[in-house]
Specification:
This protein is an alpha/beta fold. It has one domain: Alpha-Beta Barrel (TIM Barrel), CATH 3.20.20.70. It has 10 helices and 12 strands. The strands form 2 sheets. An 8-stranded parallel β-sheet has the order 1-12-11-8-7-6-5-2. Strand 3 and strand 4 form a beta hairpin. The chain is globular and about 50 Å long. It starts with a strand and ends with a helix.
Length: 284
């Protein structure tokens, strides 16, 4: 089981020592044009995690390719580039220009932009025609049937899944006004974990694709549970803001968690936890 960062949760150029603890680095989402993102305040701590309304702030595709990507290559880490947009062509045009990286993560589920993107399957199919680089579709558990979405993107050519993105929420201040300038934001952290575990489980059953699990992972035991539900790899997000040493710590705790659970390694128990639906099918 490899440990990544969740997209947008680590400024690797400002904190390269944190990035070097990872098995691969995932960039912030890149869009065709530069975006300033949402107005401040756009991050808020809550009792059970964090709300963010960054709004895909990024330098845009041209500057990313010319300035940021060369500097990221100097880190010597496998690179995953997160790609976003507002129609299938936006995604595909960026994918066509990305070479020499390990994977493209298609951000199909950002809760903090208002523009409506094309369907997830259409975007994946368009990107598949544009590049031979492996494509991972990042999905949200907000969809009423995330397993069905996962089947659609698999059929369209996705090589893997990233599960899950944040879920939209609102936090209020003492005067009962939204804390974030935008109003709502994406909820991450411990409150997301159980939802993410379910999404990983049902999408693994639906597609069999490799999955990067994320959402509230703080300990090695958390990572192990994602593996048990079907994740091959995991990504750390909110925990990195409070604990820059989390990748090394979680990796060490994962070994102890395996021993405690009676498994030799995370790979031995990948997909071990079966949903009741699967158990019924097995015994039918």
């Amino acid at each position: 089981m490899r440990i990544f960062n969740a997209s947008g949760c680590l400024d690797v150029l400002a904190a390269p020592e944190v990035a070097r603890q990872l098995d691969a680095f995932v960039t912030k989402t890149v869009t065709p044009e530069p975006r300033e993102g949402s107005p401040p305040p756009r991050i808020a701590e809550t009792a059970h995690g964090m709300l963010n309304a960054i709004g895909l702030a990024n330098p845009g595709r041209e500057r990313f390719l010319a300035e940021h990507l060369p500097r990221l290559r100097e880190l010597g880490l496998p690179l995953w580039v997160s790609v976003g947009g507002f129609c299938a062509d936006d995604y595909a045009e960026t994918c066509a220009q990305l070479t020499g990286i390990e994977t493209i993560e298609l951000n199909l589920s950002c809760p903090n932009v208002d523009e409506a993107a094309d369907s997830a399957a259409e975007i994946v199919a368009s990107c598949r025609r544009a590049t031979d680089v492996p494509l991972y579709a990042k999905l949200s558990a907000a969809h009423p049937d995330v397993a069905e979405v996962s089947r659609a993107v698999a059929a369209a050519g996705a090589d893997g899944l990233s599960l899950v993105n944040t879920l939209r929420g609102v936090a209020l201040d003492r005067q009962l006004r939204p804390v974030l300038a935008r109003g709502s934001g994406g909820l991450s952290g411990p409150a997301l974990k159980l939802i993410a575990l379910h999404a990983v489980s049902v999408c693994r059953e639906a597609t069999g694709l490799p999955i990067v699990g994320m959402g509230g992972i703080q300990t090695g035991r958390d990572a192990l549970e994602f593996g048990a539900c079907g994740a091959r790899d995991v990504a750390l997000g909110t925990v990195l803001f409070a604990d820059p040493g989390a990748p090394t710590r979680v990796r060490a705790e994962l070994v102890a968690a395996c021993a405690d659970a009676g498994v030799a390694s995370p790979e031995d128990e990948t997909g071990l936890a079966k949903s009741p639906e699967t158990e019924r099918k097995v015994h039918a």
